[in-house]
Design goal:
Structural class: mainly beta
Oligomer: single chain
Number of strands: 13
Shape: globular
Radius of gyration: 16 Å
Length: 154
């Protein structure tokens, strides 16, 4: 399966990689939908939690992450998290406990609460679509994440 944002859809599509067939079109209901002036589409950013039970979708129009239950097909919306700016990406910590929004918001995956924000050395809020985590042991990097939330079945 692949879960992908598509142009002009606040939500995502689910497709079968083997056949190339689109199986489901999952739209966020009840909110305004406009193409973002930054990303040109209402949803630009989708990720799957490490345990592959949730799909997190960026809402560029309304500044949310919409969280869907990936154990059901088609996935069903569970909740949403309001963010400080327009999200364009979601990444997850190596242990799967924290979601990093490109807005700089850090969200506890379990509680869906914002637990911190990324700031520079002067305390100014920062944003980035390319957030990675690097673990060090004895001053040497031993493990690194990437910017993609692609599940890992931990």
């Amino acid at each position: 399966m692949i879960y992908a944002n598509t142009n002009n859809l606040l939500g995502f599509e689910v497709a079968d990689l083997a056949t190339g067939k689109v199986l489901h079109r999952v739209a966020v209901e009840g909110l305004k939908t406009e193409n973002s002036p930054v990303h040109g589409t209402p949803s630009h950013g989708i990720g799957m939690t490490a345990d592959e039970t949730e799909i997190w979708v960026s809402d560029n129009t309304n500044h949310f992450f919409h969280i869907f239950d990936a154990t059901k097909m088609p996935p069903v919306q569970k909740t949403r998290v309001h963010l400080r700016d327009e999200p364009g990406w979601v990444s997850f910590s190596l242990d799967g406990r924290v979601a990093f929004s490109s807005t700089g918001d850090m969200i506890d995956v379990k509680t869906k609460q914002i637990v911190g924000t990324l700031q520079d050395e002067h305390g100014i809020d920062v944003e980035s679509e390319k957030v990675v985590e690097i673990d060090f042991a004895n001053g040497k990097p031993v493990r690194a994440s990437d910017q993609f939330g692609k599940g890992a079945k931990r």
